[in-house]
Amino acid sequence: MIMFRYWKNLYRKYTSNNDRGARMDNAGFCNETYESLHNPASDDELVDIAGATLDFSSTEDVPPLDPEYGSGYGNTGYSNGMTGNGVLMDLLDEPVPGVGTYEDFNTIDWVREKSKDRDRHREITSKSEQSTWALLHSISDAFSGWLLMLLIGLLSGALAGCIDISAHWLTDLKEGVCLSGFWFNHEHCCWGSNQTTFQERDKCPQWQSWAELLGGSSEGAAAYIVNYLMFMLCALLFSFLAVILVRAFAPYACGSGIPEIKTILSGFIIRGYLGKWTLIIKTITLVLAVSSGLSLGKEGPLVHVACCCANILCHLFTKYRQNEAKRREVLSAAAAVGVSVAFGAPIGGVLFSLEEVSYYFPLKTLWRSFFAALVAAFTLRSINPFGDSRLVLFYVEFHTPWHMVELVPFTLLGIFGGLWGALFIRANIAWCRRRKTTRLGHYPVLEVLVVTGITALLSFPNSYTRMSGSELISELFNDCSLLDSSQLCDYNSSENRSDSGVFSASLADRAFSNTLPDRPAGPGVYTALWQLALALFFKMLVTVVTFGMKVPSGLFIPSMAVGAIVGRLLGVAMEQMALNHHDWLIVKGWCSSGADCITPGLYAMVGAAACLGGVTRMTISLVVIMFELTGGLEYIVPLMAAIMTSKWVADALGREGIYEAHIRLNGYPFLETKEEYGHKTLAQDVMRPRQSDPLLVVLTQEGMSVGEIEGVIADTDYSGFPVVVSQESQRLVGFVLRRDLVISLDNARKRQDGVVSASLVFFLEHVPPQPFSGPPVVKLRGILDLSPFTVTDHTPMAIAVDIFRKLGLRQCLVTHNGRLLGIITKKDILKHMAQMSNRDPDSILFN
């Protein structure tokens, strides 16, 4: 993950002044003029991303040709022919707009971007000693990163609070309306009522169901049917609005966003994916999708929302607007902010960004991520969206310590979590692949409406599927006390009554301390267990088809709900076993009759963590998120045992988590840092050209005309060209990007008098004397990369792959005795690794 640690050693080992040049496949560089680069060839040029038809011609994210972007990268000079006194005249000394930038759907050059930033910082530092104004500029430049983190935390926290409040209100709107104010949700509506009872504290005259509003009665079959129909109608309306808004205004707003965020953080450019329209539409449709009752969560999309905020705010600061590598440091911090506001877990958010999504995470980014997550959590706490003055989403207060014997059922929950995670990934990927390859993907609106209708139809009769995912998890985490009216807390208390029929003194003392001994389950508990079993199968099936639809959809809450249900079922079973068989050898050593031995809510919490770990393969960050999420700090060991067991089991059945699987499904050029390369191939086995391929297209450092170079550009779609001394020697001089070459030649024709197709192009520092009568020459030394990375043809591919991962390279040149043989691109690496894993190498989507 720390990709620049070995720069110095790798430069010495693999780079030489004579080993330079390359080519890259990239259809995005097929345009030939400055205008064609700036304006997409067609507004209908569409690319399929995550099963959706997305328009990659959008330039909303960052203008491809920022007039200020080229500054600091290098000057491109265009020189006239030799005058009579033999002096070469440079007619253009200022940077060319667009040189040094990247086209859409391309990979950045991490080495070049970090070099640009070092040059900029060195220039600012040297100038700060010359004047007071320059010193203030240096201070503001150093402080700008912290200011940016502050703004990201404030904006993300505010948006997350608004999303939480709006989603809660719309979810309750499916069941009724508050008469004292339609903007109140059910809980807030009944807070101020004096006519509520403790047993029915969710019922008050101010809140009326749709049956009461439309029919005047809340009882009977007619009222049930009216509430049923309104529930389904509201769910269909919310999901329809969500999918229509996504389809019409921001196709990138669909899905979780985390696979694409991981790809972008690895250096890929998808313009518009983090733009303002994506932010607006994702914020609105996320509320609608969650409120529709679909089996999805808002936690994953909140990471996307936070990254959109960060990308937009980066445009306020020059050093982040003009440097793609610096911007990705900010996006890594924004990913931490997203988890911080999603779960109220700032430390877990930082670890999530470090463990799960970030590709390059220096220590400076760690500090800033922590600061931004802190600001976001404070902002969310100030808004208080849950109304309980707590930052945690599922606050628990367990009064019984866990016992060593319970590690066995905790491990069983981990095994189930791993099995469920592997099964879910395979089933969901198979369904998404079917959506991409059949006519099902042509009707996204119809698919969303059908899934929503089925979900609403089957979920309403069961109270545990009718409630939102967050409410369900909170209910399952709950530790029963005498004051709870939930079905899950309907225990018989006959064995704890005295002969007079009143509670004994010991029971009264326990009730006062909010702890109760284990009691036999009552009819309400058994009814709840059957309903939870049905809800389990329903959640498992519907989540498979829901994740990946064309609405914002997160996976954290549905996965946690599945695990929490299984954990609660196992917890109640363990509780009843300890109660009825306290004389068994495995029980009597730590649980005596009448004691409070088992906490079913703890099993639900461990099961939720195990299933989420099995699906995402998170470990350290998940443990921290869970104890921040619940406040259960003393239960870290059970969580660690279950999560590690879940990861081991899931990895035994499949190495990829859900996000990596979707990255591979969509063919994103993402080089996974966790995947080891275990083959014995060499660089010459992977490089191009192969024996049957045409020769490598190169440019010479002198002797080629403008017309010849433009012909090479028109006849090929490579992203760059090596520059050699001559076609015969193949001795390398450097490497030039196609985009920089196109822009520079077009600019020379426009701004330098006399440049024609016959004008010669030189990549030399000193241009040799030219005849008087010839057209002026074009000097392109400034856009030439004089230090591309090179390896020999006998370099093991394991080393080459490690270089690509740690340095974020786009290409690496292959030489033999100083002569250019070929090139290995990131695309070649991914195709070769896919082929060695018996996968389709053509599935790699690179432009």
Automatic annotation (TrEMBL):
TM regions (residue ranges): 146-170, 221-246, 279-296, 302-318, 330-354, 407-429, 441-460, 528-548, 555-574, 602-627
Domain of life the protein comes from: Eukaryota
Membrane protein topology class: Multi-pass membrane protein
Main localization (coarse): membrane
Compartments it resides in: Endosome membrane
Stored CDD domains: CBS_pair_voltage-gated_CLC_euk_bac (cd04591), ClC_3_like (cd03684)
Pfam families: CBS, Voltage_CLC
Domain CBS: 687-751, 783-841
GO molecular function annotations of the record: voltage-gated chloride channel activity
InterPro entries, sorted: CBS_dom, ClC
SMART domains reported for this sequence: CBS
UniProt KW keywords: CBS domain, Endosome, Ion transport, Membrane, Transmembrane, Transmembrane helix, Transport
GO cellular component: early endosome; endosome membrane; Golgi apparatus; plasma membrane; synaptic vesicle
UniProt name for this protein: Chloride channel, voltage-sensitive 5b
Organism field: Oncorhynchus tshawytscha
Phylogenetic lineage: Eukaryota, Metazoa, Chordata, Craniata, Vertebrata
Gene: LOC112236788
